[in-house]
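TA notes. Do not distribute before section.
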Amino acid sequence: MSPTAPVPAPVGGEPFSVWALTIAGLAVIFAVDLWAGRRAREVTMRDAARGVGIYVGLAVVFAAGVFWFGGREQGTAFVAGYVTEYSLSVDNLFVFLLIMTAFAVPKAFQHRVLLVGILIALVMRGGFILAGAAVIERFSWVFYLFGAFLVITAVKVCFEGSDDGQEEYRENILLRAVRRVVPVTEDYRGARLTVREAGRRMITPMLMVMIAIGLTDLLFALDSIPAIFGLTKDPYIVFTANAFALLGLRQLYFLLGGLLSRLVYLQYGLGVILAFIGVKLVLEALHTNTLPFVNGGRPLPVPLIGIELSLGVIIGVLAVTTIASLLRTRGRSTEVEQEREAVPSGR
């Protein structure tokens, strides 16, 4: 009797209790953060640095737990996914800045806008992740589509360039529809989302900008979520990596500030990462091929890229592009500071 190959363990088999505890923990973190930021105030660099440190620390603690309970492969997958999602999310900050400027959000309320907007984005991403996991489980050939999409996106990112935040933000069709159906006040009413005026209920720009942040982040997820599925097929790891990346995104927005304009090579690094994961997905699709018009429906003996190599490539590309960007623009921060000192505050 010939020996049979071992049956691989099911992927994404975390029990409901683990999901429930994780979601409850994330809800507590959001609630504490929302309560801490209940008063309108500007976020200082010290506050932002402390916040980034806290959220990165929470991600490290969670990663240690995944290593302990899930093993090396799951732990490495979470770290790789978290680093990928966090790095791809940095690109979101350029658009967040455009949205904040377009809606003229007072600085004292920007932290609340980002927190609620990111919460909306996380809920929508959760549905997106569950749908993607269900599709991948039934149709393994979808990795061909994911891989091709990521490679095309990588080429677009690298060759279309960055607008350095100069492009004007335009509301999408959903926001325009909301404005037609629901009356919106002309100005902000503190932190209130809705008000009653002249006997009718109206929403404020505060709610509009929160929706804009959430919807915009979901659009960015169209490439980041397929990218992390290229690293792991476990929906729990995909979701938690997204959650912890989004948790620290708000503080990163305030911490980076003018540094965003100095990351001139970041787009190329993100493009390389997307292309690398896209190729990884295509190789995995070929390795488990079932399409009848590819090799007669039989798998191809192509080499696979391990998760450790993926993590090394991701961190290495980010480090090189970040250092190169800072060296290329090392005099820019001084020029910006001099311009700020030369312009009177007007207050």
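Switch to the second chain here.
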Amino acid sequence: MPDIKTILAKDIEAENLDIRYDMSVKRVLGNIPLLAPITKYTVKEVEDFPIPMIEKCIDEKSIQISEVFVEPGLTNRKIVNDELESKIPGEGRTIFDIRFTITLPDGSKTKIIINIEAQQKSNPGYSLLNRGIFYAARLISAQLSVEFTNDGSDKEQYDNIKKVYSIWICMDCPEDKKDSIINYSFEPHIIYQGNDKLKLYPNCDLMNITFIHLSGKPDQSHHQLISMLDTLLAKMDAETKKRKLQEEHNLPMTIKLEKEMNDMCNLSSGIREEGIRDGILIGEINTLRDMLKAGLTTIEKLKESGLYSPDVLAALSN
């Protein structure tokens, strides 16, 4: 039997390549020079801060990339390597892409917890907003016994809950969502007011879900953040991408960020090349099958020619 890659083996290889690229994207996005502009345009508490100040607000030690479970009871537990390696996409436990905290320089040491998700498909077959609400809710409930208590001896208790943002970078967007940033949060709606001295609860927007819908084309959007992310995730060579990010978006290219961007671009090229090779192989097999059916050649003649790979000949023999 010829030594060929089965369809399953090829699917597994392609899946592994996709997983490595997905992880590489997360590592790139987890760099402070990128977290700062993402935060500036999505977290209202820092929207007026210059980027250098926001970078100082980010707690570098708090940055966790694919290290935290979303599931109840597991969010405060760090993932070990073998758990990551055994994770099958679409099955088992879900993991926050990126989680980190910022502390505002306002004297009160106000802390905000942020989650960033890199989402390939904007329409995965279910409500992405509902998933975002669940992630944000987990960011709040996981603070119990960490940031706040429900112990009667603690006077502040729930007042110590920290505000959370779950930010979703959506890449493959439908036309009615492209090139937009939308925030969803709690707002009070007065149903009845019989008291002219009514006071609303402050800080009711503890939970925020924000969607960054990319345009899909680096030079299309007029929004600074969308244009930068479109360029970062575009299919172009690493050197061109780095130059555009530096010159057009003032993104500082640290040694760590440059290395991780090179890795991401190489993996992206690998995925494209694999797809091209598969397309060529399928076209070649279909042409030869037509020739066999028409009696224009035989398997024996194709083997004798030495022009065709074992993969092609094996596919034709089945």
